[in-house]
Write a structure and sequence with these properties.
Organism (chain B): Dyadobacter jiangsuensis
CATH architecture of the domain at 31-90 in chain B: Orthogonal Bundle
Structural class of chain A: mainly alpha
Shape of chain A: globular
Strand content of chain A: under 5%
Order of helices and strands of chain A: HHEEHHHHHHHHHHHHHHHHHHHHHHHH
Strand order of the largest sheet of chain A: 1-2
Structural class of chain B: mainly alpha
Oligomer: heterodimer
Largest interface: A-B, 13 and 12 residues
Largest sheet of chain A: 2 strands, antiparallel
Radius of gyration of chain B: 17 Å
Main location (chain B): membrane
Radius of gyration of chain A: 30 Å
Protein name (chain B): NADH-quinone oxidoreductase subunit K
Helix content of chain A: over 70%
Shape of chain B: elongated
Distance between the termini of chain A: 96 Å
Order of helices and strands of chain B: HHH
CATH topology of the domain at 31-90 in chain B: Helix Hairpins
Number of strands of chain B: 0
Helix content of chain B: over 70%
Pfam families (chain B): Oxidored_q2
Subcellular location (chain B): Cell membrane; Membrane
Largest sheet of chain B: none
Number of helices of chain A: 26
CATH class of the domain at 31-90 in chain B: Mainly Alpha
Chain lengths: ~625, ~100
Amino acid sequence: MDKYLWLIPALPLGGFLILALAGKQLTRASVAIVGAGSICLSALVTIIVGGAFLAGMPANAVYTQTLWTWFEVGEFSAKITLTLDVLSLVFVFVITFIGALIHIYSTAFMEADRDYARFFASMNLFVFSMLVLVLADNLLLMYLGWEGVGLCSYLLIGFWYEQPANGNAARKAFTVTRIGDAAMAIGLFMVFQQAGTLVISDIGANATTIWQPDSTVVTITALLLLAGGLGKSAQLPLQTWLPDAMAGPSPVSALIHAATMVTAGVYLVARMHAIFALSETARLVIAVIGAATLLLAGLTALTQYDIKRVLAYSTISQIGYMFLALGVGAWTAAIFHFMVHAFFKALLFLAAGAIIESLHHEHNMFKMGGLKDKMPVVFWTFLAGALSLAAVPLISAGFYSKDQILWYSWTANGGSPVLWMVALSGALITAAYTTRMMILTFWGESHTPVGHLPGRRMTMPLVVLAVFSVFAGFIELPHNFGHFTLFSDLLHPVLPETVMRDNIPSEWLFQLLAALATLSGIFLGYHYYYQQPARIENLRRNGLLASLHRFWFSGWGFDALYDRVLVKPFIFISKVNKSDVTDRLYTGIAAATGEMYKLLSRTQSGSLRWYIMGLVVGAILILGIQIML
Amino acid sequence: MKTTVSIEVVVLLAGLLFALGIVGVIIRKNIIFMLLSVEIMLNASGLAFVAAGSRWGQPDGQVMFVFILAMAAAEVSIGLALILQIYHQHKSLDIDNLREMNG
């Protein structure tokens, strides 16, 4: 069955081609069938191929399929080769399965939109590019997918292009990720220069002979690759584009900016773990960036009003956890959290989209309220997602994945108590802002009347995702209870085991502290937003806290900082450069030519006698010169 | 009886005729007279060719003169046709009135 692997990306590509070329002629129903059907079929093929792959696992746990040669230059040849191992299988499964649910949801969500076909064409192209990214066997093909998802992200953020703000958000996302992508391209050049190949498995197998451990070269290469990941995954310092990217439709936020594309950085680091394993500095940088990002984004989420911005900052924060796990060397924990996060965050975004749609495009949580009884399906599914996000002990998938990261952030080889402290306080903050969001949205008084309720095509994906958000955690239980490690066992042929430190404290203690952090976070949210809402007002009157609130609300002033340090000088320089010296030279030549033309055109008087006079004088002159010489 | 005229005298005559022609072209206002002056210039050069041919005992000079004669005939016919057209359109043959093609 493995040989049908090519069908997984080919089906979305086919859907894209049909919709892009003939979308205008198709009826809405057939657009929906082509758009969602291609992804559903792709998910079906994934389940069949993945099942066959896992059942008859090849000896090296990798299946590759070369489709054709892209191009050859000298000794270098880039092939279109798909490779399937457990790591890419996890990603493919998440992309196609969640992608299919989101596409089904979108058929109802985008029903009234004018550009139905354009939406599904872009979405299908995105799924295709993302699948190319994770299935590519060489870095060049991966970069093709990498740029493809960037393009689709741009197209879909600016989907409602008639409002200038959406176009600006799209351009910002494109430009900021481009910074990372440029660094990554340089990283790829360095890899090619040193390894002589871009095939990932070859690089992984020969990494120790190509690079000296902890040499400067390998550190620089790793950091350049990491920069690409930071841009795509919206990590510090390139995180500013993601909150603005919420300008796109909610299914886009769910698919691209929560579940799949923004985790491409995590995939990149996990895929190139052979390089990162050689550089301790690079791993430390990853861990520190992840920890800083999760804390910073969590505190920002605590202050936002727009429900989608809360979720956006929460996504940044959760990806920070994944980077922290990658940095300390807990590779499988990062991928596990990626999978669980994809389920619950896609669910939260879709549910938020349903709420916003029903409340006539109201984004402000303070104007929602009281939706618990009015939208029961959305409430219960949102609750399941929120429990997972807050990592409520035992009953949510998020607990199992996040607890692992917290545990490894102290005990793994690259871990340290400081990182653990940050991660733990991040867990508390996560629980607090999740509770705040739940209470503001679903409890309290209703501020906005509810319009039409979401239909079955929108609630069905929510229910499926809610089930996964609760139960997906049970495939990997902690060592001290259950000790069920299906997920990490599956990944171990691809990703190295986590190396632990010596003399590690008891795991029970850590779980207890993690649970305590979550519960106290929930209590804080409950206390300030449900029991004693007046206290928030009191806090706000405090000048210091109010300015802190403003600072966090603006995302720690990063936008203003970049505006002042980068955007304004750039605009200034381009203004100055508009009439530069080089330009002067060429305009000068043009002006001189014009003047001389005017001068010469005077002689063209139209009088025949003067022309003849000129001829005679010229002839006499030339003859005279001839004779004189 | 064979009279010999020195070549210098003939070339001088040709130069004189040529200068007369040029002056005629320049100072005349009527196009027909300008055409006449051009004819004089052509014949001046023809004379110079014939004289040079006899000076070196070569037939080429007279061959060239026949060429010039043929060309002059063609030139005059085209020139007169043009003059007719100009007169049709402008009702004037004054060269000073016909200076529309200025820069």
